[in-house]
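> call design_seq(struct)
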């Protein structure tokens, strides 16, 4: 078992953490238990006993005279784990008995939990299926720049497939051709295969510009250099890519 004081040795550092950060400390600590232990103490028959856990901390005084302050902060982290469904109360035992959920057992480090928290920024069940299957895993791993690039690569591939364009037509030229607006003064060349002919010409032009801008800003830079992207920005950009894919689906020729 890894002691809490081995994970965070300075009491001031521990007390400065937010509840979800304290939860990461607790989760790393709990995952270090030998849950097969059938004896007493904090772990009983594979369950973590809340009363015994805090009682043991009071006796060990790992953080000396500030242990009472630490316990209150640890309780915040404990409550956060419960609220997230990571620490489950055992209804078949006394009310002080808890066990780690299946997901919690996979989150063995604070970094794992941090990535899990960030994953909640991207609602998988609301994403286009292509994004959910091909992009979400990279986001979950914290590979945000990769996830953004993959998302807009899927947009480009979907546009090419829906418009039946050759493989050599790529990037901005591809989307401009696919969503080329109708020119009422010159009906040839024809409008693009994904152009909404029921929309005013100004909106057709806007749609072409929207896809052009998306490829220019979010795909092309990622193709040529490392573009630092944080979790919040990446999530918003990927949701935008998902929206573009739904537009392609809607405008795809029958």
């Amino acid at each position: 078992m890894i002691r809490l004081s081995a994970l965070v040795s300075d009491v001031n550092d521990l007390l400065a953490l937010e509840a979800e950060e304290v939860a990461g400390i607790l989760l790393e600590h709990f995952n270090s238990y030998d849950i097969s232990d059938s004896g007493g103490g904090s772990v009983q028959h594979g369950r973590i006993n809340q009363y015994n856990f805090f009682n043991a901390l009071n006796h060990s005084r790992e953080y000396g005279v500030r242990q009472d302050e630490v316990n209150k902060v640890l309780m915040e982290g404990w409550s956060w784990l419960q609220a997230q469904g990571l620490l489950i109360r055992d209804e078949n035992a006394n009310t002080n008995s808890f066990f780690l959920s299946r997901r919690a057992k996979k989150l063995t480090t604070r970094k794992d939990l941090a990535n899990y928290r960030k994953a909640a920024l991207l609602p998988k069940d609301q994403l286009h299926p292509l994004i959910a299957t091909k992009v979400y895993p990279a986001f979950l791993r914290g590979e945000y720049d990769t996830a953004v690039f993959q998302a807009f690569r899927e947009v480009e591939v979907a546009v090419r497939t829906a418009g039946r364009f050759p493989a050599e037509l790529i990037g901005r030229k591809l989307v401009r051709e696919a969503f080329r607006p109708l020119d009422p003064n010159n009906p040839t060349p024809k409008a693009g295969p994904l152009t909404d002919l029921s929309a005013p010409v100004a909106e057709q032009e806007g749609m072409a510009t929207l896809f052009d801008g998306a490829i220019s800003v979010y795909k092309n830079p990622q193709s040529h250099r490392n573009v630092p992207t944080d979790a919040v920005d990446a999530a918003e950009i990927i949701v935008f890519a998902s929206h573009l894919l739904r537009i392609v689906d809607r405008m795809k020729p029958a």
